Amino acid sequence: MPVANAGAPELNELSDLDQLLGSGSTRNLRYILNNLAPADIAHRIESAPPKLQQLLWGMIDPEFTAEVLGELSEDLQLEFLKDKDSAETASLLESLDTDDIADILQTLPDQMIPAVLKAMSVQDRLRVESVLTYDEDTAGGLMNTDTITVRPDLTLDVVLRYLRRHDEIPEVTDNLFVVNRKDTFLGILPLAKLLTSSPNITVREIMITDVDAIPASMPDTKVAQLFERHDWVSAPVVSDKGKNLLGRITIDDVVDVIREDADHSLFGLAGLSDEEETFGSVRKTAPRRAIWLGVNLFTAIMASMVINLFEATIDKVVALAILMPIVASMGGVAGSQTLTVVIRGMALGQVQAGNIRWLLSKEFAVGALNGLMWALIMGIVASMWFNDPKIAYIIAAAMVINLLAAAVAGALLPVTLRAMNIDPALAGGVALTTITDVVGFFSFLGLATLFYS
Amino acid sequence: MPVANAGAPELNELSDLDQLLGSGSTRNLRYILNNLAPADIAHRIESAPPKLQQLLWGMIDPEFTAEVLGELSEDLQLEFLKDKDSAETASLLESLDTDDIADILQTLPDQMIPAVLKAMSVQDRLRVESVLTYDEDTAGGLMNTDTITVRPDLTLDVVLRYLRRHDEIPEVTDNLFVVNRKDTFLGILPLAKLLTSSPNITVREIMITDVDAIPASMPDTKVAQLFERHDWVSAPVVSDKGKNLLGRITIDDVVDVIREDADHSLFGLAGLSDEEETFGSVRKTAPRRAIWLGVNLFTAIMASMVINLFEATIDKVVALAILMPIVASMGGVAGSQTLTVVIRGMALGQVQAGNIRWLLSKEFAVGALNGLMWALIMGIVASMWFNDPKIAYIIAAAMVINLLAAAVAGALLPVTLRAMNIDPALAGGVALTTITDVVGFFSFLGLATLFYS
């Protein structure tokens, strides 16, 4: 539902904030900030440097604090909650959706969780505990327990009167769920059908029974694929056995999963962790990035050891040292292209055992075609540059070899890594460039050693 | 709404399809295929090699063809429509949502569009033409015209009876829109409120007026940010002037925008075009990828020309040739980390003129810290490897210089490219590695020339 924003001063540029801060007019700033929707306040905080983040957080009216907290990244949630005791944390969390409470709880230090749960009301605690029993990355961890259920033998008129007794219906409700006395899920009653049907017929007559209820153990990525493919707005979650209705998943939470999955591929391939934040502090950012730089240093040294094998040849023909990075670089780019396509295909559930062979042969053919074309051009450039046809043949051959190796590595690495239970998005990029560097240097300098000795 | 899938045979593995094809049992295959939801049929087709794609497309029951077409990628839509005449195309399209028809029309050859429009019913043509007047990448191009509108002076009872006269309500309807006689947008009436309020009060009393209606010219990326931030399911689209209600945007179309934007960053940074498809044909894939390989070849040659400047030094100290790729590689990885974070921050609307200076100083500090640490370690490795403290100092200094250059380039390149109206996701990666290669080789070999002469 579009959120209230009436009469609030427009705050388009973060520089406005800076100006206000500079002028010392904190009262003005507090007014502007608290007139924004909670999600917009969270966006401002996430777009601000760490010191300013603390300042802005301190300015939020208590009535909005919980909602803003729910919209922030895990890192910031933890940051802002770390000085609060369990009672304060519990009262902050209680106004949020069950799945959000569970998510935030899981970011807290382990010894805090029971204390915070204890400080909650019994009803809320039971709800949160029911979500906490499921892994964060499953349908159970993603669901909310705020379902509206009806029995199949009611008439629509009774359902309408029952709804009118509610002050409000949970947000993003497009279906009511039909259950029997034992809470077994029977089907859905779309609000649209409820509104277009005669009040005298029963729920049973118009409920839809052939729906895919989501088992609580389904991975969230799979849930997101189903929502995306079928344009769902909400879907029921049932127990793996017995089909008891446990809760529902709504599109707003699924959008977050889609965003996280997309970020995961993007970040992983660039050697970044999922926790990376644009405006994270130096102290948090530097160690996270250092790990991948270290892994890359290690693999770069391995590639240099390959070059070292051919020290004598380079000593004889210095042109080799000048040209060798070109061979490695072309392999790296071609390999990243293949790797990215395959990793995305896997994330969308397109790449499977049945079609990987076709995919490999396609990538091999593309690598061969582009390898031959650019090898020809590079050969001409090299022969003109160094006035030496021999080096032209050598670099052309090495480039074709490396682009073929890049195609094979790019297509098979993600599949192999997944089979070994290693995350392809995370390890794929480093492994790939190691292969294209090693193959590039080895084929180029190896061929040169043969032809120049 | 969860889609019917009852009694359909499970078809989990694409290899099942292969087996069925191999056994020649096309009747069985046709049965399985047509028992899937249209979105699932589209998914199967997109996960199949080109030849199989044609075969599967030909097997779809006519009653599902249009819906499957609507779920396919642009490339495949064009592929399957190219043999059809304008009347066939028009009748295929007419059952789809207005925005989908407009999207598909825009992929057709220019001379086809008027013919297809002419073959449509007058009502459909007017609708499609109203969407076609807006750019594909704006709110107007994203909207559907299937709104249900009510007047503010009606009682809810009248609204309920009015709805009951509909056979069905458009999918993903969570709000009715309130307009005056001139179709000026006044506010929204959430179905949830309609259902929980007394039938005797008027729409005016419970409608929500302080909502952000989306102007038709708003870019789709901005629309997606609003939906994502405010958890909207649908939102009204109004004319830029006069606030006339034009249509509405629904979350399912927004999810597609989010997916496209995420793919754009991922693909761009890997040197792939947005049209790249996992199971695209070799003929389509090879030329698209060749462009980026060519650009990379050009920049790699530039980097080699830098090495060429120091030919004499390398000739004297071969160890330099062995170690120089390490300096370039570390700069490339550090630069990609920064570039990726900044490009994503820009895509989410976090990075702005007001905070780019802070971002730059953070990235500079991270680059300095990690540069110093890994330079120290690399220095120790180099001095042990070549038994030469001089080369250790040189590589350590060059690595620090290159990681600082990488931080500056990674942070400023996207902002500079955007200011020049060049897409940072597309050009950023190539530009960055050019910089880190050139700076890496120049600083390492330059320092070596100073110290070994």
Keywords:
homodimer; 453 residues; mainly alpha; MgtE N-terminal fold; CBS-domain; Tetracycline Repressor, domain 2; 3 domains; three-stranded mixed sheet; 22 helices; elongated; disordered N terminus
Secondary structure: elements and pairs:
The structure is a homodimer of 453-residue chains.
Chain A: H1 14-22, H2 26-34, H3 38-46, H4 50-59, H5 62-71, H6 74-81, H7 86-93, H8 98-107, H9 112-118, H10 122-132, H11 139-142, E1 149-150, H12 156-164, E2 175-179, E3 185-190, H13 191-196, H14 203-206, E4 214-215, H15 220-230, E5 234-238, E6 245-250, H16 251-269, H17 282-309, H18 311-316, H19 319-347, H20 356-386, H21 389-419, H22 424-452
Parallel strand pairs in A: 1-2, 4-5
Antiparallel strand pairs in A: 2-3, 5-6
Helix pairs in contact in A: 3-5, 7-9, 8-10, 15-16, 16-22, 17-22, 19-20, 19-21, 19-22, 20-21, 21-22
Written account of the structure:
2 copies of one chain form a homodimer. With 453 residues, chain A is mostly helical. The first copy, chain A, folds into 3 domains: 129 residues, MgtE N-terminal fold; 100 residues, CBS-domain; 171 residues, Tetracycline Repressor, domain 2 (Orthogonal Bundle), CATH 1.10.357.20. Chain A is 66% helix and 6% strand. Chain A has 22 helices and 6 strands. In chain A, the strands form 2 sheets. Chain A has a 3-stranded mixed sheet. In chain A, α3 crosses α5 and α16 runs parallel beside α22. Chain A is elongated. The N terminus of chain A is likely disordered. Chains A and B meet through α1, α3, α12, α13 and α15 of A and α1, α3, α12, α13 and α15 of B.
